[in-house]
Amino acid sequence: MISAFILLPIIILIVLKGGTLTLACLLALLSAIGIAEFYRMALPERKLELRLAALSGSALIFIPFASDNKLLIPGIGLLFIGFSLLFLFRIRTINNAAHEVAFALLAFLYIPFLLMHLILLRQTTFGIQWLFVIMLIVMTNDSAAYYTGSAFGKHRLYPLVSPKKSIEGAVGGLIGSLCGTLLAKYTFFPQLMLIDVVVTALVVGIVGQAGDLFESLLKRSFGVKDSGTIIPGHGGVLDRLDSILFAAPITYYYVLFFFRG
């Protein structure tokens, strides 16, 4: 098991001092653990498929190192065909076959494909700064939402998926995201314009909260409380990455199409 107090400094150190390849290796490891957690929730009897998915899915993280990302579509295509054939010839019960294949392929799109955008973001001009912006947005959002919801939460946000989350907490989380992004602008990322601060804080903050809700949806559907137990007191890797998984591609495409720093 990994302590959250050890994991966070390691990630910060790798982002700050490590190269893109070092970051990719870390994300590949987290991706493999996340895929394994997903399979244990969705397809607990598929041991062989779990191992193959964790190994092959994590390879997607390294696709941005290929020239012009030419391997992205072929890589996803080969994974789709390969695992479709694997499940085709390893049928357990025909009634559940379609659901099992859908879960298996969802694992690839949900975890390594979304995480891969952190590598794409790292390769941009201000990649290190943007990675820290994502971390600040997610952490300030989570903390502010928790304390605001605990103190003022009266109206449930989405009780079907997450009974404890409140509208007040969600709004407090967005205010926290705004404060975190302002902190980035006036400390290590002066190239951010105020419009960048507001848009990224609100959009990435909202999407990050949606990512948290989506993982809650999956866990409630699978009948589990946490995705895993690797981080004591914090659940599994997916429980820690749920917001970042959704925030990473949104931030990358904002930087790609709108940021002019």
Description:
By secondary structure, the protein is mostly helical. It folds into two domains: 19-123, no CATH class; 126-261, no CATH class. The chain has helices at 4-17, 20-42, 47-58, 72-88, 94-122, 127-152, 167-185, 194-222, 237-257; strands spanning 156-158, 162-166. It has a two-stranded antiparallel sheet with strand order 1-2. Strand 1 (156-158) and strand 2 (162-166) form a beta hairpin. Helix 3 (47-58) runs parallel beside helix 5 (94-122), helix 6 (127-152) packs antiparallel against helix 7 (167-185) and helix 6 crosses helix 8 (194-222). The radius of gyration is 19 Å and the shape is globular.
Q: Which features does this protein show?
A:
disordered N terminus; globular; 261 residues; 9 helices; two-stranded antiparallel ribbon; 73% helix; 2 domains
Overall structural domain count: 2
Determine Rg (CA atoms, Å). Answer: 19 Å
Structural class: mainly alpha
Shape by Cα distribution: globular
Portion of residues in beta strands equals: under 5%
Which sheet architecture does the biggest sheet show?
2 strands, antiparallel
Give me the number of helical elements.
9
Could you name the ranges where pLDDT drops below 50 across 5 or more consecutive residues? 1-5
Strands side by side in the biggest sheet = 1-2
- Total strand segments: 2
